[in-house]
Structure formats: C-alpha cells, structure tokens
# Entry
Amino acid sequence: MKRTFSFELLHTDPSGARRGRVNTPRGVIETPAFMPVGTAATVKTVDPEEVKASGAQILLANTYHLFLRPGHESVARLGGLHTFMAWEKPILTDSGGYQVFSLSSLRKITEEGVAFRSHLDGSARFLSPEIAVRVQERLDSDILMQLDECPPYPAQRDYLARSMELSLRWAARSKAARSDAEDGRALFGIMQGGMERDLRQISAQGLIEIGFDGYALGGLSVGEPKPLMAEVLSYAPELLPRQQPRYLMGVGKPEDLVMAVERGVDMFDCVLPTRNARNGQLFTRRGAFNVKTARFREDPGPADPECRCPACRRFSLAYLHHLFRAREILGHRLMTLHNLQYYQDLMAEMRQAVATDRFAEFKRNFHARRAEGMAEPCP
# Structure
C-alpha cells in the first residue's frame, strides 16, 4: 500500500489563523504545532516517552550533527532514526544548511554545494543538495528539507538576491534528488530573500513552480529587530500555497508563535524551551522568569498552578531554585519537562481558539496574563 503525506486545512479564523492537519505515514500532526528540537537524536535531558507525554506530535532532528556523528549510514544500519532514538512519531530533519553556514570561516560556498570542516575534528566535509537529501532519506525522516543558504542579518541587497537565487537552484536539485520510492516522505522548500519583500515574492514563486509538499519561511530570527520580523510575517506566509503546510523555521518565543499563527503559519521549531530550561528560565502563562533569582528561595508554590507537568505537580519553586543553585541535573530535567509542556499547551490552546473563531480573544488574554504576571525578557 502506498504511504502518503497530505495536509488538510480544516478551518481559518477571522484573524487569519489556521487550524490544520498534517497526515504522515507515522501519524497525524494537528496544527498549529511546535516541534521540540532533538539535535543529536535526543531532546536534551529527557526521555522520548516524556516528550510524547507533553503532547509533542513531531520532533526535529539535525542533519548536520547526525551526518558527522554517528553518521547517517550507521543510523540506517541500526534501523533508521525512529528505531535509533525510540521515537515512533513523525520526525522532521533540517538540511544542515543553517549549521554549515554558521561555521563562517570553516566553510566555502560554491554552486555545487558547501565545503566545510567539521567542528568536531576539523575533517574536510562536503554537503550538496543531493547529499543532503540522501542523508535525510537514510536517516528515514518523514519530512525532509531542501539545502538552502541562510543569509545573515544585516546583508546587502545584492548578496541577498544572489543567495536567494542559489537557494532556488538548490531547491530544484533537491527535488530532483528525491528517491522514486513511494515511501510517504515529504520534501519542503525554503523561502529566502532576507527582509526584502520582492525577493521573498520571487523566492516563493520559484518554489511553487518547482513544487513541494510544504513550504518553510527561512532567514528569520537571525538577529533582525522584532518589528522587522513582524513586517516580513505580515505578508510572507500568504505568498505560499494555502492548501499546503507553512513552516516558520527557528522562531520560538511564545509571543512570536502567537503572532505567526495569527498570520497563517502552521509549524514551528526552536531550541528556546529546552536551552533556556537548562539556564534556569521557566515559560509560564504569567510570563517567563528565571528560577535562580533569590525571590524564589522559599517560594512554596508551583511554577504554574495550571500546568500538569511533573515539576508543577510535585515540586515547589523553592525546590527548583535549590536544584539550580546546587547544580543538580534534576533541575535541568524538571525545567525542560515544564517548558516542553508549556509550549505544547500553548499550541493546543491556539488550535482550540482557531477552531472556535476565538483567536482574537485568546490573543488578548495571552498578552493580558503576561502583562499582569512576572514576565522577564527572553534572551
């Protein structure tokens, strides 16, 4: 039987927010959805069953890191990424492009691809659109990403134009490199163009002409001011097909997720909930705050009374404060479990709000509760 990938647009709220469903051979993803990041085939400090218990429907794994260690062929021989990391639900793998391009002096971009040196041992490596697709297929991920160039911010317009055109040519090569097997995998194209509206339009049209199963918005959350990101999101999602999933890459502050959902984005990923947990920051309905601060030293209450995570059900803020001050690894685990739960709850609340045409009300309440609480800026 042929395994298929598809997207159903179930409802659109008057605000423009969308409620959808991504169907994959390994399960359904109700959207809008947030993907926890499992960089090296693990969400740091927690077990896959704990990630699933938070409500996560899909994980993101990093092609670059798995390409270098343990190697995609090794993962393939061990049964593929799902077996390797004991995660039976869908997995999206990025192409490795962002990590390679962030190496700066360690890489060289050509038309053929990118030559770089491993950050692990300095060995010479090469990644092309074709190799990126091959690696992801061998990992046996469910959603593959094209290799693209992610330009920095700020960047000159002529560089952005050349970079965007290169990414389009790589998109076509990525599409051509796909296996002919009817395996149900999806391949997403990535819109680039920096903060330039006309370049974004050219990129979107070029990707649509090539034809992909879904489309991503790349090149955001790369250091640009928040108003500029908001400006791009005010038009960019609508440049992409209505009947296919739209994925905003690497954006993950709660307020940014709410903004992007309102503008028609369906899928997200970010290291923020897990990375910040390991640095002591909790995301709650009252805002984000750092548990290491002295005011929590004798606080007997939970981090979030409405949260059902293990940290909030069983432990006090005072205990979390103590764990971090004592540098106990349990603090990292409990904080990660909490932040994962918060993000999945936030997405579930948005799905419900969209389905009932109440997204505007949800948005008002979201911001009001944060304003009344203990919000601190997210790093």
The mean pLDDT is 95. Residues 9 and 20 are 4 Å apart (CA to CA). The chain has 15 helices and 17 strands. Residues 6-270 form a domain with the TIM Barrel fold (CATH 3.20.20.105).
